[in-house]
Amino acid sequence: MADDLQDGTGQSARQFAHAVSQMAVTNILAKGAGFEYVQPSATSALVDVMAAYIQKIGRDAQELAEVAGRAKPRGTDVSLALKDMVPYPVGLDDMIKAFQESQHRYEGKLAFPREVPKFPAPSKKRKADDDPIEEIGQRDSDKPAYTPSFAPPLPFKHSYSQQSHVVVSKEVDPKRIRLDLLHQKSEVQASLHNLADHVVAAPTALVDPVWKPHVSRLDLANPYLAPPRVESAARQSNPLTIYAAPTPSYRPVVAKPTKRAIEIMSGSDSLTNDNSNANNQKVKEDKILAGTYHEGDSD
């Protein structure tokens, strides 16, 4: 009896089968045979004999079904297995007759004093809308009835489960996507404008670059540099020209860098620009929703 149960229940299944068999044997001895008491060792021996008898019938019926090309035995297989019992074969007609006699003789006397619970206990099935993450990494301990005992365990539940998993929904409407991108772009532009308004211009001094080709290092001989010029005595005697730079014969024209001034906008001008930007933004959104806006169109 215990071998027919699944291997996942193990020791608990054998204990449950032994307890139910002991209850049945004790009930038959007390109410059917008329015994007032029985020793536990005798009850255990009768339980073992009954279990071996039932297992023998089940194995023979299974073998007969496999010989006939069936996976599960039928009633005919059980009847043939009873006829093959040694040394006392039992026929199906004899069993039916014995059951009818016992029903009339022990009517209402052989019932169990309480209802036998189901084993294993039925578990409440979780709804499909529960958290599917709990199934990840779990295996099915219960095998189907048609699965042979030597088959490997089933794979993880999440690999073959038909339940829908929670995924992050994304926007698929192209117009709505373009509107979202346009909003993000406008927010970035507004942030940059706010940053430029708070920037304080630091005072800078512009120095004109002067190229002096006659100046050279003494430790390097560069043939491409002109030698230093010697000023006249009149120029050296003039105190105004003592600290003046020598006038080269050739001076390249170098473009002076221009300073970019930051335009300071008044409050009315900034308000006007914000209104115009908002109007342009609304016009773009209307065009995108209408499907007439294309990249590169002027504002």
UniProtKB/TrEMBL annotation:
Domain of life: Eukaryota
Compartment(s) where it occurs, according to its Swiss-Prot or TrEMBL record: Nucleus
Domain Bromodomain associated: 14-94
Amino acid composition bias (Polar residues), ranges on this chain: 267-281
Any GO CC annotation of this UniProt entry: transcription factor TFIID complex
GO molecular function (one): protein heterodimerization activity
CDD domains documented for this protein: HFD_SF
Keywords: Nucleus, Transcription, Transcription regulation
Stretches for region Disordered: 113-154, 265-299
Biased composition (Basic and acidic residues): 282-299
SUPFAM superfamilies hit by this protein: Histone-fold
Family: Belongs to the TAF8 family.
Protein name: Transcription initiation factor TFIID subunit 8
